[in-house]
Amino acid sequence: MRKPDKPILSRDPWQQLKRFTRARIALGRAGSSLPTKELLDFTLSHAMARDAVHLALNVTALARELEEQRFSIQLVHSKAPDRMSYLLRPDYGRQLNEQSRRQLQAIKPVIPSGAVNLVIVVGDGLSSLAIERHAKPLLIEIKKNIPEQWKLGPVVIASQARVALADEIGELLAADIVAILIGERPGLRSPDSLSIYMTYAPKVGCSDADRNCISNICSEGLSYDTAAKKLLWLAKEAIRRKLSGVALKDEGSLQEIAVIDQHRKLL
Amino acid sequence: MDRLSARVTLKKNLIELFMVYRFSIGAFRYQFNGLKELLAKASPARSGDCLAGVAAETYAERVAARMCLAEVPLTRFLEELLIPYEEDEVTRLIIDTHDKQAFSEISHLTVGDFRDWLLIDSTDSVILKHVAAGITPEMAAAVCKLMRNQDLILVAKKCRVITAFRDTIGLPGRLSVRLQPNHPTDDARGIAASILDGLLYGSGDAVIGINPASDSLSAMSDLYYLVDEIIQRYDIPTQSCILTHVTNQIQLIEKNIPVDLVFQSIAGTEKANKHFGIDLSLLHEARSAALSLNRGTVGNNVMYFETGQGSALSADANFGIDQQTCEARAYAVARHFSPLLTNTVVGFIGPEYLYDGKQLIRAGLEDHFCGKLLGVPLGCDVCYTNHAEIDQDDVDTLMTLLAAAGVTFIMGVPGADDIMLNYQSTSFHDALYLRKVMGLGVAPEFEQWLKRVNIMNDQGKIQPVEPAHPLLQGIPEHLLTFKTPNEKA
């Protein structure tokens, strides 16, 4: 077999710059194209992100785990019957199906006067992996830090959920504050990133401008402890000022709520 | 077969009311209530139009709409407005700036004739450039719906839109690249490392454009200084841009931060633009501010716009207009401000607007065609998110077709994987592939620079870089010690 006179690949002599970024730099070239190893590495990352989108949340397992931690659980489903309709009809993902709506209506929340009713929704969103990995430890941190006089409503696990589904749930359960923990759109470097969206006095028809977002909660992002404290700081401020969203600015020194390219996000 | 039954018999005082357009195929009679409905139903199947409830219900209805649309005179688009003149400043812009002189060349045509006219050889680059100001976005959108993909490529290829700031963009036989060195925490060293990676692969002639993670003005001004420092130190004929809200950029210009291009996301209706927090007068103000800095060397196109199908619908501001027509109207906004670059971020919003590779490819070609026909320097972020039925093979197909169509620029993202925006796009390698396969060069001033610093050889080939290369010798040390004016103080 003929041995090549020179190596097939051009290596990039700036490997040392890789320590400054997780971007795919200094990949080298086969001709002007990607080397096989880098091509397959990208393909694997994409496959994992795709699987994260389509992997159904194991709702019963999560409910059991949370009940073991003494959370009271309600299981609900949006109007999107399956993943395909969830992806194509964002409006379905923002509404409860009929059965779930009746189920929540039947719960009559008993809230002592002066108490704050905090309802937490756990929604699969675009990455059930994020929920599987981070929802339980995050809920435990939140519970640990909740002010004594607050009443934590049932944790509502919602399937095929978009962010605004929390508005309807919060309204039905007469929540002062609703917070939805939801799996974010997976990126290649982070298929399991979780976000929290918090709304004061939630009701159907709230807009994105009424919510505060804490994003990038994952193993390489925000810690559970910090995320929980941020959420409760925002919730307390929301109660005190009777509002949430754009009017509730991140003012605490602890607060550094990630802003993901608003302009692109709005496109 | 019936002819278009509703003829232009309405009196002038009724011209802004919609007509009923009818078309029969065999025993089937199709009716379309107004141009808006006719345009929407003539569109190729698309998830966003289904979501908006404006798409054709059957395959045959879609073709009937196209046959009916083919018989509509172009002049009709100046009479039946999709959004009333009084209600929408984009409509007013389209009507008030319509160049009747330029239009006179095509004013006798129907939409169907217009397609034929665009395709014939005698309609060349010079004529298309001359006529552009007479074409409204609705006319471009209409004829687009009668075009096959190859038609969109062939006509767009004939359109020349040349712009300039520190280098010249859009010359025939060239393909420029926006170097996008994003970083999730805006880390200066991480961003600079990605810039270097791109430059050493011959990318960055369109712009070095950063999507910042932070919206703090001081963090952003640090980024302006960083890119400006790199551009100046190595004397690179290119420009920088930080993609933040236009009001932030105006403030930064007032503080004398080195701003080259001013960025803004734009859309095709006044209401959708309001959703972005802008209007036309704010864009005028931003452009004047950028011009006042006078930082261009070979030209003064100072604006950089981004658009994308679905933005009007996602802002609940589409007025029942299909998403491709809304997008074409955004190009009328862009054209008015003589941008250096306009970028359709084609697959960014998600599968509820463009579901799969087929829809993505079609939308990318439509956007490019409409933009170029209207005289806008259109580039494309050929991209997708992970919840769409799209992968890198679809990206390969669309970018190759766009390169054949003479696209102004594409994106250059390290390894095609944007670690800040969490989506996939095109890479520095992809640009090398396109230039090789399609025989395309880079912007001439940038090409001279690449040759001067031995990144490109005399034959126009990107060279393997030696460890002793001046950029590698200089920049890493420089990066480690880079200080912004804030840090220096």
Automatic annotation (TrEMBL), chain A:
The record's subcellular locations are: Bacterial microcompartment
- Lyase as UniProt keyword: yes
Please state the protein's primary subcellular location: other
Catalyzed reactions per annotation: ethanolamine = acetaldehyde + NH4(+)
Q: Which cofactor does it need?
A: adenosylcob(III)alamin
Q: Which UniProt keywords apply?
A: Bacterial microcompartment, Cobalamin, Cobalt, Lyase
InterPro entries cross-referenced by the UniProt entry: EutC, EutC_C, EutC_N
**Pathway entry:** Amine and polyamine degradation; ethanolamine degradation
Is Lyase tagged as a keyword?
A: yes
Gene3D superfamilies assigned to the protein according to its UniProt record, in alphabetical order: Ethanolamine ammonia-lyase light chain (EutC), Ethanolamine ammonia-lyase light chain (EutC), N-terminal domain
* Molecular function terms from GO: cobalamin binding; ethanolamine ammonia-lyase activity
One Gene Ontology BP term is:
amino acid metabolic process
The protein's Enzyme Commission number: 4.3.1.7
| Pfam families membership | EutC
Function in brief = Catalyzes the deamination of various vicinal amino-alcohols to oxo compounds. Allows this organism to utilize ethanolamine as the sole source of nitrogen and carbon in the presence of external vitamin B12.
- How does it associate, per the subunit comment? The basic unit is a heterodimer which dimerizes to form tetramers. The heterotetramers trimerize; 6 large subunits form a core ring with 6 small subunits projecting outwards.
Q: What is this protein called?
A: Ethanolamine ammonia-lyase small subunit
